[in-house]
Amino acid sequence: MKYFFIASSALLIFSCNQAPKTTEKQEMPAVETTTPEQADISGKLPDPVCQMPYDTSYHEWTVYKNDTIHFCSITCKDVFAKAPEKFMAKLKK
């Protein structure tokens, strides 16, 4: 039993002293960003409240004067509903 304990301790010590395996660093893929001008090109207006470019994950929307306006959050939609003319004027500069 004594030899088993010594052998397992030695094995543990030797395995801990090994150099860690080197791994190659993988570069992150480039993220494409969409500018408001690019959003206009695709036919989708950016969020008029916070000016975030259109994203297909937006679930909040409303129709204002035959334009479908998408919002990044319910908060932006509520703010827009209080003064839509103000935000549409900023959007259509």
Task: Output the keywords.
41% helix, 93 residues, 4 helices, alpha+beta
Topology of this structure?
Blueprint (H helix, E strand, L loop, with lengths): L1 H15 L19 H6 L18 E5 L2 E5 L2 H9 L1 H8 L2
Antiparallel strand pairs: 1-2
Structure description:
By secondary structure, this protein is of the alpha+beta class. It is built from four helices and two strands, in the order ααββαα. It has a two-stranded antiparallel ribbon with strand order 1-2. Strand 1 and strand 2 form a beta hairpin. The longest helix is centred in the first third of the chain and has 15 residues, at 2-16. The chain is rod-shaped, with a radius of gyration of 29 Å.
Shape: rod-shaped
Through-space gap between termini: 85 Å
What is the gyration radius calculated from CA atoms? 29 Å
- Major sheet: arrangement of strands: 1-2
Helix content: 40-55%
**Whole-number mean pLDDT:** 75
* Strand tally: 2
Counting H and I runs of at least 4 residues, what is the number of helices?
4
Largest sheet: 2 strands, antiparallel
Share of β-strand residues: 5-15%
Structural class: alpha+beta
Uncertain segments are 36-41
Q: How do the helices and strands follow one another from N- to C-terminus?
A: HHEEHH
